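Cross-check.
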Amino acid sequence: MIGIQLDNNFSPKLHATALCKSLTLGETTEQNQAIILKMHPGESKENPTLGVGLDSYTNDEDVNFLRYAIRQNFKQDHLVINSMVIKNGDIDINATY
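Predicted model, tokenized:
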């Protein structure tokens, strides 16, 4: 998906030209996934139920509810999960729109 790219602090990336600064457009699928994982439900006015709230699962040993939350939230954003591995605190997700 093409959209406004964000930096590591989730601020818009700016592209400086000789005349002005402008927003950087590009592939945003991975950043959208990161935002959904980080965001808690209720943080988005456009979609108040969207968000996994990954930091609330940090001490959870059973990853099944986390896996379910990721699947539900990605589905809500129309992301199709091709593969998902959660192991030793790492999450590897391959998903596309």
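The mean pLDDT is 93. The radius of gyration is 15 Å. Passed to J.P. for a second look.
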